[in-house]
Design a protein that fits this description.
By secondary structure, the protein is of the alpha+beta class. About 15% of the residues lie in helices and about 25% in strands. The chain has helices spanning about 70-90, 130-145, 240-250, 385-395, 420-430, and strands at about 10, 20-25, 35, 50, 60-65, 90-95, 100-105, 110-115, 120-125, 160, 180, 215-220, 265, 275-280, 280-290, 295-300, 310-315, 320-325, 335-345, 345-355, 360-365. The strands form six sheets. A six-stranded mixed beta sheet has the order 1-8-9-7-5-6, with helices on one face. Helix 1 crosses helix 2 (about 130-145).
């Protein structure tokens, strides 16, 4: 695929990459008829690798707006690509309000973007909407990444055969002498062209796999194993992700981190509802059930959760009791998963799991909303000192085990001092429900 000329400060993406290994994108948010690219057979690379301009986005916050010519499906694809980049580093793409510097994303006749923050409205053009990592490629330009073949030390790794480059496209291969280089050359990067990009030997619409003599990018001796695998458009490489984190910082999770294993499960008490962020593969929470009851769990998220998020309730041993995936039956953009399951007294766990390489924000609500009956946190319950301490705090006095005491809004209805809290405490204490 070849694209029309673009302004000098924009960089163009050659879409063709290893198409001989095409597969259907597994994410249901992308058209099943769309062609995506499977991983090429690459030797392992684990260093942080990337090539950066100086004009990064302050605080990692990138306001954006979407042109009216972008349909709803493509707007969703854009948001998923943004979420994947947010999962890799400490950035936030936020809808623009009055910010003077922002991205304006529109459907165009090619894929191109300015490099780094320009200080005003800057256009990102996209045409290859079905290819998630082409969207990521252009957004990574906007974040400040140059093409990998433009890094100052590239001659150690590749040769650019300028005689093979189509007229008007040589700028996409120019060395950026002032760029900040992170790590060694990344043959696996989504920011690297395939070896035949814009080759004069290739007919319009042709894909990678041309003869070495026709290649615009030729691997140096010692790196020839990468010659036919340049142009990855199937995943962010380890170098891409580490490079993003090196420049913008590691991704920032929520207040419950690190709770990515059963052993590190975070207590939801005393808050039965939390605003969360799933950047790890799993988030685990635990809650104490005073008596056998029906536990209700609800998770809500935006479109990132579709075909991605699963909510599960686990027993004390970590075995799954029930699970649910979020749906959006009213098409309002809010995906909700709900579980209602009988649980015994004791500890149970709630797990949030993502299966795709992007995460995002979500809200988790767990009920019944009663706090643990070990009010004074001394490890003894049922224990009348819990009732004594509760009543003392309720009437304005101190707790005997301060500061380990729970709050006096025992049933978490937002009303206190309230005798219903006392009633609820006594009911649970005697083995009843809240």
């Amino acid at each position: 695929m070849r694209h029309a000329l673009v302004p000098a400060r924009l960089l163009v993406l050659a879409a063709a990459a290893c198409s001989a290994h095409a597969q259907v994108d597994p994410a249901s948010l992308f058209d099943e008829s769309a062609t995506d690219f499977a991983p090429c057979n690459l030797p392992p690379q684990f260093d942080d690798r990337s090539t950066w301009a100086a004009n990064l986005w302050t605080g990692g916050v990138i306001p954006y707006e979407v042109n009216a010519n972008v349909n709803a499906t493509n707007a969703t694809r854009l948001r998923i690509a943004m979420n994947e980049l947010e999962t890799a580093c400490n950035i936030r793409f936020i809808p623009r309000t009055t910010e003077s510097a922002y991205l304006h994303v529109q459907s165009g006749t090619g894929n191109n973007s300015f490099v780094g923050r320009q200080g005003g409205g800057q256009i990102v053009n996209l045409v290859s909407w079905s290819w998630r990592y082409i969207i990521c490629h252009e957004l990574m330009h906007a974040l400040g990444m140059w093409h990998e073949q433009q890094r100052p030390d590239r001659e150690t790794f590749v040769t650019i055969n300028t005689a093979n480059i189509q007229s008007g496209y040589a700028g996409n291969f120019n060395i950026r002498s002032t760029a900040t280089v992170v790590g060694p050359f990344d043959f696996e990067s989504v920011m690297l062209y395939d070896d035949c990009s814009f080759s004069t030997c290739c007919a319009a619409g042709s894909t990678c796999g041309c003869e070495f003599a026709c290649a615009t990018i030729q691997a140096q001796p010692g790196y020839t194993q990468f010659q036919n695998s340049m142009g990855n458009r199937a995943y962010l490489s380890d170098g891409d992700k580490a490079g993003l984190a090196a420049r913008y910082g590691s991704p920032v999770d929520d207040q419950y981190e690190s709770n990515d294993s059963l052993a590190a499960a975070a207590p939801l008490w005393p808050s039965p509802s939390a605003d969360l962020r799933l950047l790890d593969t799993n988030d685990y929470f635990r809650t104490t059930i005073a008596a056998p009851t029906t536990l209700s769990v609800q998770a809500s998220a935006s479109v990132w959760a579709s075909s991605n998020l699963t909510i599960s309730v686990l027993n004390a041993a970590g075995s799954q009791l029930a699970s649910a995936v979020p749906t959006d039956p009213d098409a309002d953009g809010i995906y909700t998963a709900a579980i209602s399951v009988a649980v015994p007294a004791g500890t149970c766990y709630i797990r949030a799991t993502r299966t795709q390489p992007w995460g995002g924000d979500y809200t988790l609500t767990v009920s019944p909303n009663c706090d643990a009956i070990d009010f004074n946190g001394d490890g003894l319950f049922p224990d009348t000192t819990d009732i004594d301490d509760f009543l003392t705090v309720f009437s304005g006095g101190p707790c005997s085990n301060a500061p380990n005491c729970g709050d006096i809004d025992f049933n978490n209805d937002g009303l206190y001092p309230d005798t219903s809290d006392i009633d609820a405490l006594l009911s649970v204490f005697s083995g009843g429900g809240c």
